[in-house]
Amino acid sequence: MTLWHIAWNYLWNRKLTTFLTILSVTLGVGLITAVLLLSYEVERRFVQEGQMFDIAVGAKGSTQQLVLSTIYYIGQPAGIMPADYYNKLKAEPDVLAAFPITMGDSFKGFRIVGTTRQMLEFDWRDRVTNERRGTYDLASGAYFSRPLEAVIGATVAKDTGLQVGDKFASTHGMMEMEGIERHEDTPYTVVGVLKPSGSPTDRAIFADYESIYDVHEHEYGTPSLFGRDFGNDEAVTAEPKGEHQQGESDHHDGESDHHGDKDSEHADHEHFDPREKLTAVLLVLDSPGQRFEFNQRISEEYPNAVAAVPILEIQALYNQLLGTARLVMLYIGFLVIIISSISIVIGLYLSIIQRKRDLAIMRALGASSGEVVGAVLIEAFWVTLLGLVTGYAAGLGLTWGIGAYLVQTIGFKVSVFSPSPDMISAYSAILIMGMIAGILPAWQAYRTDVARDLAEL
Amino acid sequence: MVTLDQVRRKLGPGVEFYCEQFHAPEGAQIALWGPSGCGKSTMLNLISGLLRPSSGVIKIGEHETQRMSNGQLDRLRGEQFGFVFQTFNLLAPFTALQNVMLGMRFSDTRPSKEWRRHAIELLERVGLKHRIHSRPGTMSVGERQRIAIARALANKQRIVVADEPTGSLDPKTAAAVMDLLLQMCGENKVTLLLVTHDQGIANQLPERFDCTGLAREVAQ
Question: Which chain B residues are within 8 Å of A13, Cβ to Cβ?
Fold first, then answer.
């Protein structure tokens, strides 16, 4: 019979009080666990997505808005820029791959992203670990090869019921409501469905950038996006439309073998008519180390565009918004832990008062003051440990629930079982606080007056 | 075995305990009797080291306890003393078996692997083998006092101090408990110091020590 058994028996003997004390610790630990897991995972996932592209170039405006709208498909892009920039950027010496992005339409709230087939076929790898990323892996069908063919993300397929071969009419803008303008005359045909990747691509529809022009030219007689003319722009230089059409024809006829090779024949044929406009161009550089220099150069050489390093933007955004929210939630969690510690103190202290006689008996049986103090501290340890275990489980459950919601809403899969390094520090701090909470009752036990307590009835 | 020589202990304003001489040889069974408040329980607490004397000498075997540290006293108490109280003083969260094992837990007289077997033997000896897994709250007062006797003898103790051990029992149960206590202390050659205010109980023991006047008023 060890002091651990003795402490456990006393806790078990007052189950309700013990349960309520453990519950209060559980709440605090659960909250802290969920906050740490979610913030760590959200940051990791955001960073992971942000690492895909080295540079995003878009119309002048907010760089964060540019990154959020074109990489995470959150919010509206700031505007449009001359499509000619794509041609110039692609020809830059340090660019490994360049992908045009056009936006403006949606289907049932899912954004339609106009780009090139090369973006889906690119050999995407983690820029840090070089592991292959299956962001655009097909579950069924094939990638689009001509305008008005669409490849849909896994969540889109699940939520809309669209399958390969189905047709759908896009909606102008992102709103889905009664009487909203639909492009019924230029429906898309689903040619492929992507595997779930837990990334924003799950909630996107990809189509050839020409699709966007086709839809709007048909509707408005203009190739510009959003159904309105872009207007004059110094960077726009007139080039014959025929050249673009030739390129387009080549693109549609040929199977791409680009796969990250910027010198491929197909890439050379991918030229925009300079009258057309783009939402953004996403770039993969030869090396991530070139990001800052390249970013600086674009700011100087492309007067009507703004460039952003996605990873920097997302980290800044994370620190500005989620970082503060994370801190607030952590403070709340630790406040709950402090309250829990106080309830441990009260619970144990009352228990010590109630069983002064028991402590005196133990002393009479030969227990030293140290052993009595040890038994009380072990009780505090048991309560804190059980609170930690149940709190961790509750935190995992909460994270799982929120993670499921995040996958549904923004396509972010949160891995429940990837503990944050901060959690070890937080749990250690909680254990120490629990032990500190045991000190006052332990001191009370230490001061047991054996003869008096045994005499008192 | 137990000797008190001019032992004083301040009990409160103007009141002190004073015992000029007391001696209990090994294996003796002595009733410390007297009216309530005469100082007999204080004497028991001084002998068992639960109280320290203000002056004088208390010898337990070869040990002068007034010279011992708290830790040494804790060990001595765990190894050499067994306690039987009027209100039993069993620990409610523990079963009968665990209560007896607790008597061994805080001393080094027996290896831990023997605790359980020895506790079962003792409970069998006091007639409670069938209730070893019962908690005190579910047992009769007589059964509880028998567990206390088993616990008091769990460590090969040399001295058992019993403070009004039959005070909460009906006469029939009290007689049975007294028989058991005297018998078991006799079998184990344990010195029994039994505090009682009841002369009838005191007369059941071979020797008596009149405690009247041990607690006395003194000039402040």
Answer: 92-93
Whether residues B75 and A366 touch (CB distance < 8 A) is answered with yes
What is the distance in angstroms between the Cα of B10 and the nearest Cα belonging to chain A?
14
Under 8 Å CB-to-CB from A120, ≥6 apart: which residues?
A136, A143, A151, A206
Q: Rounded CA gap, B33 and B38, in Å?
A: 9
Residue B216 lies in a domain: no
Question: Where does the pLDDT of residue A93 fall: very low under 50, low under 70, confident under 90, or very high at 90 and above?
Answer: confident
How far is it, in rounded angstroms, from Cα B37 to Cα B215?
Answer: 7
Question: What's the Rg (C-alpha) of chain B?
Answer: 17
This prediction's pTM: 0.65
Q: Using one digit for the tens of pLDDT, what is the confidence trace for A295-331?
A: 888 878 887 788 899 888 888 887 777 777 777 877 8
Domain that residue B130 falls in: 27-51+70-210
A319 Cβ partners below 8 Å, 6+ apart? none
Q: How far apart are the C-alpha atoms of A211 and A25, rounded to whole Å?
A: 56
Residue B74 lies in a domain: yes
DSSP letters spanning A122-159: S--B-TTT--B--TT-EEEE----STTEEEE-HHHHHH
User: By the 8 A CB rule, do B125 and B150 touch?
Assistant: yes
- Give A393's Cβ-side CA count (13 Å radius): 7
Separation of alpha carbons A423 and A400, rounded Å: 17
Nearest CB partner across the interface for B93, out of A13, A366, A367: A13
Tell me if A287 sits within 8 A of A115, measured CB to CB. Answer: no
Please answer whether residues A256 and A285 qualify as being in contact, where contact means their C-beta atoms are separated by less than 8 angstroms: no
Considering its fold, how many domains does chain B have in total? Answer: 1
ipTM (interface predicted TM): 0.81
Domain with residue B138: its CATH number is 3.40.50.300
Among left, alpha and beta (phi > 0; psi -120 to 50; other), residue B189 is left
AA identity, residue A319: N
Alpha helices in A202-290 (DSSP H): 209-220, 241-253, 265-269
